[in-house]
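Quick start: what a row looks like.
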Amino acid sequence: MADRFRTRLRAEVTRWVRDGLVTSEQGERIVARYPASTAWFARPIALFSLIGGAFIAAAVALVIAHNWQELHRWVKLGGVVALMIGAYAGGLVVRDRGYPKLGDGVLLIGGGLLLIGIGLVSQIYNLSGRPADALLLWWVLLLPAAYALPSLALVMLGYTGAFAWYWTLTFDRTSWLGSELAPNWILVPVALAAAGLLLFPLGLVHGDGRYRSVRRFLEQLGLATLVGSLYPLSFLWRDLSMPDTTGRWPVALPVVLVFAFVAVTAASYWLPRDTPAVRAGLVAVLLAVLVYLVALTGAVSARAPGVIFRALGFADWALIFAASLSLILYGARWGRNAWVNWGIVFLGIHALARYLDLFGTMLQTSLLFFVTGAFVLLLGWALEWLRRRMTAQAAVRRESA
């Protein structure tokens, strides 16, 4: 791990020599300029410092836990605030001295201490509320500070907190969103898919500059949430029992879908440079998913007959396939290898799910395991071949650009 750069450099130099860009002697001199270095965690001072620091931290934690009830509330709050300020100050100092990753790691500790402080205030003053309320306050306070510092790790932690807040709302029957989703399980994947449609364009907004890693994080989180939420809906064709609903049309969920529509339409402006028709193609796929979510919400609210849900289940199959294929093609065209990889994964999961869905009950157990194993092996080989071909095309396009 520590010598990963040198290993990759040697592999690249070998290709340069083979392509005639440099001579063999020049290649050896290039590699010699970067001697192998020992990993930081392999040095005795680093290893023993970590072990000693861990024991000291454990001792302090045990003392505090043993005397927690006797500590005055201001001592508790003051301790958390002091640790938080120390973490932020230490992270900034370490980062300014040329250790950006270590500095971001210390800043992450400060971000976690903020959530601990919120929980501590709630405990000391006996404040009642939902867990989602604490998460909301956490990411609302954390994100502006993360952008102001700026710290990419804190930005990603803030958006993780925002996603955790929305996730908690979705499954909390007493929240403004969860109370509408609880009567029917079908609406839960709809709400999560809408969150994916919000996260993906939000990632595009960060561009390829300083916040490139944030863009990648939000894009992948959005894609995983979006397509992952579509898989449960692909079983609607089986005439699953639909829980009875109150007949009321939801209010909170349509608001989320409206926000998703705004985000998707605005995404066309932040997509990589290309012809308008090509950029519109990906937006059209995302809008098709959004239309499907709206139609499914309407069908649940109107207590549509089973034939409607069966049709929507088959439509979900087509949407998963179209979304996966679009990610592969657009990822190769725009040099987004992560899109290609996610598209391959989604396509493989979809194929395996449909195989088990359609043929899983037709075979005996032993034969089912054998045939499924062979199918998975062949599918994995085919998808890996497709992934390598598409990532190679993406690399060629990046070099030509």
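That is the whole record. The mean pLDDT is 82. Residues 51 and 57 are 10 Å apart (CA to CA).
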